[in-house]
Every structure is written in structure tokens, then in C-alpha cells.
From TrEMBL:
Annotated Tectonic-1-3 domain residues: 226-371, 387-551
Record bears the keyword Metal-binding: no
GO cellular component: MKS complex
PANTHER family, per database record: TECTONIC FAMILY MEMBER (PTHR14611), TECTONIC-2 (PTHR14611:SF6)
Protein's recorded name: Tectonic-2
Keyword S-adenosyl-L-methionine: no
Quaternary structure and partners: Part of the tectonic-like complex (also named B9 complex).
Tectonic-1-3 N-terminal domain sequence ranges: 102-202
One Pfam family hit: TCTN_DUF1619
Transmembrane domains' residue ranges: 631-651
Length: 661
């Protein structure tokens, strides 16, 4: 098979394109093919021409901004006969390169703690105009006219946030009242309430950002303070690394980010004893010095613990016969846990717990290693907030328990409020939990295998199911706002638990149990407490956790009699959890009196005639026609009413009585 490319155009008389042909023309395109199957070929066309605009004495260039505008016909021929064809319409513009080269001025990068978004994120190409990026300073006026009506919107297009309504600059574009200049605020655009929404830490003074130039050699470069998300460095200016997951895969040397907690599991198939890091790590390799972000350094304090029970870490994959020789692997890393204590923008101390064990290889085993890092501010874990100040929809609901030990015995320690998370097999023993997200109603569950032997012990079964459900919500308090203070009790609301009747259940038989708490329901009441930049702030007012019970009975119908005969045979029973969010209406007002309930003459909701809304057409709430037109019509009606009153019978009688005096 051969491929031919030629340029075609519609006929002037019929408007049709000529049929496929195996005779190729000279074009500015290069065609290549690649076999991707027995009956499929991938065809690729490449333009063999430069896309630069022509300058002086240029030949391989574009004379117009619209560089290529043509229709191509690609034909697949066998023995000189076309078998298939494809029409391609090519419309390619020239590359927009500014005529004046960019300046060599140094570019200052703003401090990301105060400006998390760039002024023009769509400016991706240096010293070149990016198409549809209207905030690109490299675009000339002529180039902007090509796509001024198709500018990129949102933060990527440079529109980080709208100007607040109290800014004095808003009056230039909106219809503001006359008194607006006396009460408006002149505030710089950098003073944006959206900046630092989830940033937790002390306020630092902004410093000039780095420049694209070599540092002065007369003085050493000062140590930068840590901010949320910045990598932690050692005293040798190397990253502090630990295995983490990136795009679902475990990476052995991933940098640890400041104030970013994580907990991962990595699975490795072992056929021989490991000899390299991280599975074979010596204490001197872990006991390193780390830059504390304040100009000093801290030592990593390493504690080794030997694990004897390896059932949680090892799964046998392939067992060889007992006659084969076994390998003994000593001091294999099973888990590494970092506890990093911080204050302000620096690190005060680092504790590392290194769990090791001895693995006997008789074939191949699947080793599951665990790695974690937790940032603690005193006794508090550095966790992200769920809003500032009110909750944001889709963020986790923050729970808490009373801290009775440590340096702050009267504080509240954060703990999640969870629901069941569906897994691949749906069993409760393998399922993970997922947090309750604010404003999102959800229902989830899992399956619990229960045998006839457990159904014969109803009290034990009820207690086991109750323990599983109570483990979802271990919190006693819930934060009423998205950024609670662990030391302020007023920022927390106590959760109300509704317990089931604990009296002895009747109706239990050998194959059924009554009063199983199969369902846990979390009811959250929230209300709007204020507005920030036009966005309503929602707080949690109350939380109630209740349970529903049911009867579990073995199903032996349909020929499946084995569970009723064999006491060890199991059946699957569902246990579920759900959450419901209810908005409390704002300004409900006092209850209506009996007169207001019975006297409905002036009630616009229950009467066709509404006297209180007689002047509604002349108010700004009426949108049926322009306000100026409604006001003019209303004034005309008032004029006719006054004229009719003056010329009517009452005024005529008053005038006659006045003239008779």
C-alpha cells in the first residue's frame, strides 16, 4: 500500500471535490505511516515549512498571519487503485513573535505566602505572545486584536478575584449611589481576602523575592524560612526524602513538604534479601541534621523498634518445598514514622521511629512497608482547615476529642468523623473509611460475614456491630467553624449521641438476632452567620448521631440450606452509615399572633388583592420593564388622580361653599 497527498479544491461549476487519485502533487507536507494492526495504519502529516512571519530577505516564512489555508486529500492506493481517502482542512496561523526582543531587566518573583497565584498564569512562553492570553505583556496591540474576544477566563487568564464592592475603583464600572465616594475604601489589590485561605501559621513580613541573577559573593545567602508546602532541606542543602506515592506509584526519594502530613503503604515483592535503601537502612543514614528554617539546624533523633509479629507486613506469594534452602533477611525496614515539631516558620525537633524485623524467605513474599510524617505544633497536629472562617462545601467536617494528657490538658485534639467507604469486595474487614464532607449528604455501607454460631450469641454480635459503628465517629466535639482553635472551647460544639434501648431483646432465636444496630445516621444542622466578600459563611450549630436497629435472620430459602445446617457457614449482612445536612433558616422572626393568623385581608400570600404592594410597579424590585419607564407611568397616574380629585364632586362642593360666603 502507498500513500499519496495532493491539494484539492471544490469545482467552480458543481462544487464537488474530484475523486481520489493515486497521482500525488508537490505539496508542503510530509506524510508518514505506521502499521498499528493487521488492518489499520496510522497516518501522520507534518508541515515542511517555517511558521515565522516573513522579514527582510526571508524565503522560508509566512507572508500573512494566516499562513496555511488549504484542503488536502490523502489516498491509500494498492496497485495504482485508490482504496480509501481522507479529506483534511488545514488552517494554521503564523507564530506570533514580538519584533522587539524582551528586556534584560530582572524579574522579581513575589512571595507565594502572600500571592499564591501569579498575575498572569497563562503567560507560558518567555518573550512570545501566548494565544488567548490577554494579560500577556509580550502581545502587541495588533496581536491582541486577533483573539481579544476569546480571552481565557478565570484565574488562569489573570482574573484572580473580582474587586470587592467597597473598593473606590468599582464606581467607575458600576452604577453606584451618590454617597459612594464618601464611604468607599482605597485598598491595594494585594490586600485580598482570598489569599492565605488555608494557610496556618504565624504572619511573616514579606521579603523581596529572588531575582534571576547570580548572588553577590560578598555576603552569604541568608536561610529562607519554611512556608506551608516548601521542601525541607538538610544542612548540606539536600532534600529530606522519604518514600511516598506519586501518581499512584511509590517513589523511594520524595521530598518531605513543610506542614504536609502523609501516610502511605508501599508493596514490594521480595525474592532475595534487600541490600539497598529504603528496605535496608542503617541508623547513621537516618540520623542526619536538618535545616530548621531559622538559620540553625536540628538533629533527627532515631529510635529503633524490633517487630516480631510480621503478619501485618508480609503476605506469602509463592512458597517453595521445605527441602529448599531458606534465606534469613535481618534488619529489614518495616515502617518509618516521622514526628516533626514546628513553631512559626521553623522546625524545633524531629523524632523518627524505625521499625525493623527479620524475614525468612522460603520462596517469594509480598512486603508492605509503611511510611508517615506528622507535623506537630506543641501537641497539636498540623492539619489543613476546612474554611476561613466558615465551612466550605466539600471540605471535611472537623471533629475533636478532649486532650487529657500532654502539655495542653484542656485543649481539643482533632479527629475525623467518618463514613463507610465502598471497596472492591464490599466487606467491612477490608474497607477503608472516608471523611464526612460539609454540605454533602451521603449514604454508604459494607457487608459483614456472620455465621450461625455468632447468631446464637446475640449479645456478643450486637456488641461487635456496635463497636464497628462507634469506631466511625470517635469524636465527642465538632468544630463550629472551618478554622477552630484547639485551645478555645467556644469554637467547638458537643455531639449529641442517641443510644438504642439496651434492654434485653425478645424474639431472639437460634438463627436470628433482634436489635442489631445496623445503621448509623449523622444529622448536622448548619446556619449562615455572616458574609465575607459576598460569600456566605456557614457554621455548624448542632450534630446528632443516632442508630437504627433491625433483625438479622439466616436465609435458608431457595435451596441454600447450608448456613442453617453448618454453624460455620457465613452469610453477608449489610451495615450502613449516612449523613444529612440541614440548613437552619436565618431571621425566622417571632411567631405569628392569633390575629395575624386569622385576619388575612392584608396577607399577600393568601389573597389575590394585595394592598401593601400597591406601589410595587414603581419600586426597583419590579423587573417587568425598565425602572425609568415604570416611574414615569406611575407619576402620570398620580397626576391624573390629583386632577380628578380637584375637578371632582367634593372639590366642586367646597368651591361653591367658599363662593357663597
Amino acid at each position: 500500500m502507498s500513500l499519496t497527498v495532493r491539494t484539492v479544491s471544490p469545482s467552480n461549476t458543481t462544487g464537488n471535490i474530484s475523486p481520489p487519485s493515486c497521482v500525488s502533487n508537490v505539496t508542503q507536507w510530509v506524510v508518514t505511516k505506521e502499521q498499528v494492526g493487521k488492518a489499520a495504519v496510522r497516518v501522520q502529516l507534518r508541515l515542511d515549512k517555517s511558521l515565522r512571519l516573513c522579514g527582510e530577505n526571508d524565503t522560508d516564512c509566512c507572508t500573512n498571519p494566516l499562513c496555511v489555508l488549504e484542503t488536502l486529500q490523502v489516498s491509500a492506493c494498492v496497485n495504482g487503485t485508490p482504496q480509501a481517502s481522507l479529506l483534511i482542512q488545514a488552517k494554521i496561523y503564523a507564530l506570533l513573535v514580538p519584533a522587539v526582543a524582551g528586556s534584560d531587566n530582572n524579574t522579581a518573583i513575589p512571595n507565594q505566602a502572600f500571592q499564591p497565584l501569579g498575575s498572569c498564569p497563562c503567560d507560558l512562553t518567555s518573550r512570545a505572545c501566548d494565544v488567548r492570553c490577554c494579560c500577556d505583556k509580550d502581545c502587541s496591540t495588533e496581536e491582541l486584536k486577533l483573539f481579544v474576544s476569546h480571552c481565557l477566563l478565570g484565574p488562569f487568564g489573570g482574573q484572580v478575584s473580582p474587586s470587592p464592592e467597597y473598593q473606590c475603583s468599582v464606581q467607575l464600572t458600576e452604577n453606584s449611589p451618590d454617597w459612594f465616594p464618601f464611604l468607599c475604601v482605597n485598598s491595594p489589590p494585594e490586600n485580598n481576602p482570598h489569599l492565605g485561605l488555608f494557610y496556618r501559621g504565624g504572619v511573616i513580613k514579606s521579603k523581596p523575592g529572588p531575582r534571576f541573577q547570580s548572588p553577590a559573593l560578598s555576603a552569604p545567602v541568608p536561610v529562607n524560612v519554611y512556608i506551608e508546602g516548601s521542601p525541607i532541606l538538610t544542612v548540606t542543602d539536600e532534600y529530606l526524602t522519604i518514600p511516598q506515592k506519586v501518581l499512584g506509584q511509590c517513589v523511594n526519594r520524595a521530598p518531605v513538604a513543610f506542614l504536609k502530613n502523609f501516610k502511605v503503604e508501599c508493596v514490594t515483592l521480595l525474592n532475595t534479601c534487600p541490600t539497598a535503601s529504603p528496605l535496608q537502612t542503617q541508623p547513621p543514614d537516618l540520623n542526619i541534621q536538618v535545616n530548621n528554617g531559622q538559620g540553625g539546624d536540628v538533629n533527627v533523633e532515631v529510635t529503633e523498634e524490633v517487630v516480631t509479629d510480621l503478619s501485618q507486613f508480609i503476605t506469602r506469594a509463592n512458597v517453595l518445598p521445605a527441602a529448599d534452602e531458606s534465606l534469613v533477611c535481618e534488619n529489614v525496614t518495616l515502617a518509618i514514622d516521622y514526628q516533626i515539631y514546628w513553631k512559626g516558620n521553623g522546625i524545633t525537633s524531629i523524632n523518627l521511629t524505625h521499625f525493623i524485623g527479620t524475614i525468612i524467605l522460603n520462596g517469594s513474599v509480598s512486603l508492605t512497608t509503611r511510611y508517615s510524617a506528622v507535623f506537630l505544633n506543641g501537641e497539636f497536629m498540623g492539619e489543613p482547615n476546612s474554611g476561613n472562617p466558615g465551612y466550605q462545601v466539600g471540605r471535611p467536617v472537623i471533629g475533636g476529642i478532649a486532650n487529657t494528657s500532654g502539655n495542653n490538658p484542656g485543649s481539643i485534639q482533632r479527629t475525623p468523623i467518618n463514613l463507610w467507604k465502598s471497596g472492591s469486595d464490599g466487606l467491612c474487614v477490608t474497607n477503608e473509611n472516608r471523611p464526612v464532607l460539609f454540605g454533602e449528604n451521603a449514604t454508604s455501607g459494607c457487608l459483614l460475614p456472620v455465621s450461625g454460631e455468632y447468631l446464637a450469641q446475640c449479645d456478643l454480635l450486637r456488641q461487635a456491630v456496635r463497636s464497628l459503628q462507634e469506631a466511625l465517629t470517635t469524636a465527642i466535639y465538632v468544630a463550629n467553624s472551618g478554622n477552630p482553635d484547639p485551645l478555645t472551647v467556644a469554637d467547638w460544639v458537643k455531639i449529641s449521641f442517641v443510644t438504642l434501648n439496651s434492654s434485653t431483646a425478645t424474639g431472639n432465636t437460634r438463627s436470628s438476632c433482634y436489635g442489631i444496630p445496623y445503621h448509623q445516621h449523622i444529622h448536622v444542622w448548619s446556619l449562615i452567620t455572616g458574609m465575607v466578600d459576598g460569600v456566605p459563611q456557614r457554621n455548624i450549630h448542632a450534630v446528632q448521631v443516632s442508630y437504627s436497629s433491625t433483625t438479622w435472620t439466616l436465609d435458608c430459602g431457595g435451596g441454600a440450606v447450608s448456613p442453617c445446617v453448618d454453624s460455620l457457614e457465613t452469610q453477608l449482612f449489610p451495615i450502613t452509615s449516612s449523613v444529612t445536612f440541614t440548613d437552619i433558616p436565618v431571621n425566622a422572626g417571632p411567631p405569628k399572633t392569633r390575629f395575624q393568623i386569622n385576619f388575612t385581608e392584608y396577607d399577600c400570600n393568601r389573597n389575590d388583592v394585595c394592598w401593601p404592594e400597591l406601589a410595587f410597579p414603581v419600586t426597583r424590585y419590579y423587573t417587568g420593564e425598565p425602572y425609568s419607564q415604570s416611574l414615569a407611568q406611575g407619576l402620570v397616574l398620580v397626576f391624573f388622580f390629583i386632577v380628578a380629585s380637584i375637578l371632582g364632586t367634593p372639590w366642586r362642593q367646597i368651591r361653591q361653599a367658599w363662593n357663597s360666603l
